Amino acid sequence: MDERTARIALACVTEPGSAGLAERVAELGPAHVLHEVLRGGGGPVGTAAGRIDPEDVPAMLTAMARAGVRVLVPGDTEFPSHLTELPDPPLALWVRGPLDLRVAAMRSVAVVGSRACTPYGERATTAIVDGLVATGWTIVSGGAFGIDAAAHRAALAADGCTVAILACGVDLAYPRAHEALLCRIADLGAVVSELPPGSPPLRHRFLARNRLIAGMARGTLVVEAARRSGALATANRTLDIGRPLMAVPGPVTSMASSGTNRLLHEELARAVCDGEQAAAVLLGSPGAGPVREPSAGGRDGPAPVDLSPEAQRVLDALPSRGGRSVEDVAARSGLPAATALAHLGILELQGHVRRAARGWCRRA
């Protein structure tokens, strides 16, 4: 394989944000690392549903081109160069839509927030996005319910540019209720993913997607987020790479704004109330210090802080009730079954998981 095809093939058999993978590719080259991965000698081997056999990559590229999907790799003219500032930059990006991604990303802002947003959050999002679009800013978000959807719709309504970054393949609509919205974004802007076509939206891929949202934009605006909102993970990544972080103040009585208000209280984000203030921060203010990572465990309780990325993916693949087989855990975590089983054993010894009647589950 040539280097470009090998890089795309490697992106097809590994998970986005795999620790140390980018450094190994830079050191040895994508073809060498691909060979290591395929023989099980290095890097995580992707076994989740929707992965593509490396030998099928040329045919996949041809089929995607016919469907209006292009693949970008570092060094391509359209690849946003500032994505390389991420500690684990993407190997490749699948893009659907006419927007030039590099040009759009040069003057872009990520707008994120709670899926269960309030009318206040929607109104604030629309007002701020209107002001940003009027001065030529591209709106980047994740296509999810709540603030994400409000940001995309506001940008489209104002005839602005918007980019949706997905935790699944660009040929899939997630959530399904946003199929029409994502199609409209693909018609006028860009739908982007690190994952090859057919890849399903597994839980750990949303965390990887959040880091890509932070890396794509020149700064991040959190409109409305509870204390354990996934939007705070994007805030964390934004500060990790030294980009400006902004937050919209919310009512002190609103749980939906408890996370954004905490960011402001701890002086981790700049308060903004309109597009003009947000643009001023993006153009002239550095990011603040690090923000505490929110729990990856969601409603099931705080995630342990001493786990490796692979072990965390295994834990994220487990339910709180019922149980899952080792094979199901492996598919959901994107790891080989033997690796998933080894992590399950260690997690059991640490008291994080237990064997249930119907498989493995989290320990309460």
Q: According to CATH, what is the class of one domain?
A: Alpha Beta
Strand order of the largest sheet: 1-2-6-5-4-3-7-8-9
What proportion of the residues is helical, as a percent range?
Answer: 40-55%
Order of helices and strands: HHHHEEHEHEHEHEHEHEHEHHHHEE
Number of separate strands: 11
CATH fold-level assignment of one domain: Rossmann fold
Beta percentage is 5-15%
Number of helices: 15
Which CATH architecture of one domain is right? Answer: 3-Layer(aba) Sandwich
Quick one: overall form? globular
CA radius of gyration is 20 Å
Largest sheet: 9 strands, mixed
Structural class: alpha/beta
Q: Segments where pLDDT lies below 50 for 5+ residues?
A: 42-50, 285-305
Kindly report the average pLDDT value.
85
Q: Could you tell me how far the N terminus lies from the C terminus, measured between alpha carbons in angstroms? A: 48 Å
Task: Give me the secondary-structure topology.
Elements: H1 3-13, H2 21-28, H3 30-38, H4 57-66, E1 69-72, E2 93-96, H5 101-106, E3 108-112, H6 119-134, E4 138-141, H7 147-157, E5 162-165, H8 179-188, E6 190-193, H9 203-216, E7 220-222, H10 231-240, E8 245-247, H11 258-265, E9 270-271, H12 275-284, H13 309-316, H14 326-333, H15 337-349, E10 353-356, E11 359-362
Parallel strand pairs: 3-4, 3-7, 4-5, 5-6, 7-8, 8-9
Antiparallel strand pairs: 1-2, 2-6, 10-11
Helix pairs in contact: 1-3, 2-3, 6-7, 6-12, 9-10, 13-14, 13-15, 14-15
